[in-house]
Write a structure and sequence with these properties.
CATH topology of one domain: Alpha-Beta Plaits
Helix content: 40-55%
Number of strands: 4
Structural class: alpha+beta
Order of helices and strands: HHEHEEHEH
Strand order of the largest sheet: 2-3-1-4
Shape: elongated
CATH class of one domain: Alpha Beta
Number of helices: 5
């Protein structure tokens, strides 16, 4: 009997997943109602905010005394030179990073970086995710019914 026991156990274990595949169940997680509300709000927020992967050029990373003032001075100077390019200051302790542009392709970011790298040495292209700003004014309605709404 003892020498057949491993064979019997192997047969039972092999058939267990087959039985489990046919069973359907319901999982209910109980917890604080506030947690459920926060999860619901998080889902709603993520549905409303649309983001797109893209690229920005980091033109500086400053830390130390007066780094905040230096970051805002650099932002102002860059904006004077390139008024059509957005400038962002990101603070991640202890650094103030100054990033420019909203590029949808790495190639576009590199082309612009080549234009500015002499004035801003140490620039680097960074991957980024930013919200989509849709311009609804240029949309053409698909049907006459859409135009009426």
């Amino acid at each position: 009997m003892c020498r057949h026991l491993p064979l019997l156990l192997a047969a039972l274990l092999a058939s267990a997943p087959l039985c489990a595949q046919h069973a359907k169940g319901h999982v209910e997680i109980t917890g604080d109602v506030k947690v459920s509300e926060l999860v619901k709000k998080h889902i709603e927020f993520n549905e409303k905010v649309q983001t797109v992967p893209g690229f920005r050029i980091q033109i500086a990373s400053l830390s130390g005394p007066n780094s905040r003032n230096g970051a805002f001075d650099l932002k102002r100077r860059f904006k004077e030179e390139y008024p059509d390019v957005e400038v962002y200051i990101i603070f991640t302790e202890p650094n103030f990073r100054i990033k420019v542009g909203d590029f949808t392709s790495r190639l576009d970011a590199y082309v612009f970086m080549q234009r500015i790298k002499d004035r801003y040495p140490g620039t680097i292209v960074r991957e980024n995710v930013y919200p989509i700003h849709l311009d609804w004014s240029n949309l053409v309605p698909e049907t006459d019914d859409d135009a009426a709404n």
